[in-house]
Automatic annotation (TrEMBL):
SUPFAM superfamilies: Homeodomain-like, Tetracyclin repressor-like, C-terminal domain
Record-annotated HTH tetR-type domain positions: 9-69
Name of protein: TetR/AcrR family transcriptional regulator
An MF annotation (GO) of this entry: DNA binding
Length: 189
């Protein structure tokens, strides 16, 4: 019996979803190809018909993670930078291990140790995030500042072992992003 034409595409998508989830929650080094394939409910042999290496998988999984994370945002978000910051810099986003997390924040410390293909993918993903932020502001500089506050704030809050301090950090970053967007209202020339 022949496979459906979409079977290979569906298998690759299952592998990418599995890798995206596992890598964003555990990092590159702690996850093996076997773990990715087991989570995708496929054999290890299926991996090699889709990817040339674990690094190739990682690069493609970053893009997949960003797309899945973007799709799971609340329907009304982002309407403005305040809503975007409150959604992104939330304890729910930080703590939810069952949903796809943002690879920009959850992999930030992992990327500098990877090859150029992975860094290039991360850079493209950051530029897409920045474009989203910039659509909610009138200034590229404020969009850059807001993006760094959101990504950095979420990444650092996730690394802390003190939930109260972590929550305080998230709230401070939210206020920082909101103050940047409020400044825009008075900066218009």
């Amino acid at each position: 019996m022949a496979w459906q034409e979409t079977h290979k595409e569906q298998s690759k998508d299952r592998i990418l979803k599995s890798a995206a989830m596992l890598f964003t929650h555990h990092g590159f080094e702690k996850i093996s190809i076997d773990q990715v394939m087991k989570n995708a409910e496929l054999t290890r042999g299926a991996f090699y018909s889709h990817f040339s290496s674990k690094s190739d998988l990682y690069a493609q999984a970053i893009s997949k993670a960003a797309k899945v994370a973007y799709k799971r945002k609340p329907v009304n978000c982002p309407q403005n930078m305040k809503d975007f910051a409150q959604y992104y810099l939330s304890s729910e986003h930080r703590d939810n291990n069952y949903e796809q997390a943002c690879p920009l924040a959850f992999l930030v410390s992992d990327i500098s140790q990877q090859d150029n293909q992975v860094k290039e993918t991360y850079t493209k993903t950051l530029k897409a995030f920045l474009a989203q932020a910039q659509s909610l502001t009138v200034s590229r500089e404020k969009a850059l500042q807001s993006a760094v506050l959101m990504i950095g704030g979420l990444a650092i809050s996730r690394a802390l072992d003190d939930k109260d301090f972590s929550n305080e950090l998230l709230a401070a970053c939210q206020k920082g992003v909101i103050s940047l967007s409020t400044e825009e209202d008075t900066d218009v020339s």
